[in-house]
Amino acid sequence: MSEGGQIHELDPTTVERIAAGEVVERPASVVKELVENALDAGADRIDVTAEAGGTERIVVSDDGHGMSERALRRAVREHTTSKITSIDDLEAGVSTLGFRGEALHAIGAVTRLTICSRAAGADRGTELEVAGGEIERVDPAGRRTGTTVTVEDLFYNVPARRKYLATESTELAHVTRIVRGYALTDPDVAISLTHDDREVFATAGDGDRRSAVMAVYGREVAESMITVEATDLPDGPLEAVDGVISHPETTRSSREYTTTAVDGRYVRASTVRDAVIDAYGGHLGGDRYPFAVIDVSVPLGAVDVNVHPRKLEVRFPDETAAGEQLRTAVRAALSEAGVIRTGAPRG
Ligand code: ADP
Ligand code: MG
């Protein structure tokens, strides 16, 4: 607190940068917002490239429906979204991934942002450049239908935040986890990640979950995968559980290889992750965790749509029942695969 405890009114630029920090925490949060926008635009293919862990440059390119010049100018303004018109839409449930209309604006406030887009049916594209929240340039541009967003120099104008970025390899690990999450839970979309000119992975977008697992984790992991497919579950908030889990001999020493989705939407759901791991019982070695991609279906409106910008966690109405449903589904899959005998746990 300043001397004398005086209260100052913050200037609008400062307020804007603080607000931007709610959305833009690190390179991975930028990547998350841009990939979600690309998915919302109906992309079949999304290519993500990053330099220096994303701190120097992030490029997300999609073949979605694109934006007209007018839509593009609107998109970078505050609280503009094509996805909802009022708070009632939020309560009715949202099918698109983003719905707050602040991501691009926030990113533009704390980076150098360039968006090149061509709307489906338009005869040309538009390139727009924003720096420190101001539109600096709008030009016609040749490109095919879709959008390419380039984000450079994260926090160049907020040195206090730039200082808190982790090492490049840690930031890259966060970026990788995010892109991997979408690639694994959206096998219909071809998603690639390239870092410093080296391809990290590229999925085919052929709709096959195992093929996505193979692209992301490699053959050994893909070949150990067991299908989980359950609609006949005990009572609880989940209608169905669908996905793949690894054989208990294919494990790592981290929980981060369990990827979760709700209704096909990649989200963090620790209830789901923990129940999946728990279902293996004593079959996992000490401190060993499986690979898993698990998508759960819930009735419309049953899940707390997290309105917080970072959408960190999904909560279920009855977490205990949801956990039991998942354990049932995963044990059934392990038993079906001959890995465990249900009713007679080992040891
Ligand atoms: P939100 O996603 O919450 O609507 P954003 O700030 O992320 O807010 O995006 C603002 C708007 O810009 C979106 O509603 C959408 O109309 C448009 N937009 C953003 N990214 C894309 C994209 N990759 N393709 C097409 N339209 C996009
Ligand atoms: Mg968005």
From TrEMBL:
Keyword Hydrolase assigned to the entry: answer is yes
Q: Name one GO molecular function term.
A: endonuclease activity
| Record-annotated DNA mismatch repair protein S5 domain positions | 213-335
Highest taxon of source: Archaea
Q: Name one GO cellular component term.
A: mismatch repair complex
* One GO-annotated biological process of the protein: mismatch repair
Residue ranges crossing the lipid bilayer per the database entry = none
Report the sequence similarity comment from the record: Belongs to the DNA mismatch repair MutL/HexB family.
Q: What does this protein do?
A: This protein is involved in the repair of mismatches in DNA. It is required for dam-dependent methyl-directed DNA mismatch repair. May act as a 'molecular matchmaker', a protein that promotes the formation of a stable complex between two or more DNA-binding proteins in an ATP-dependent manner without itself being part of a final effector complex.
The name under which this protein is listed is DNA mismatch repair protein MutL
Q: Which organism is it from?
A: Halococcoides cellulosivorans
- Location of this fragment in the whole protein: 1 to 347 of 709
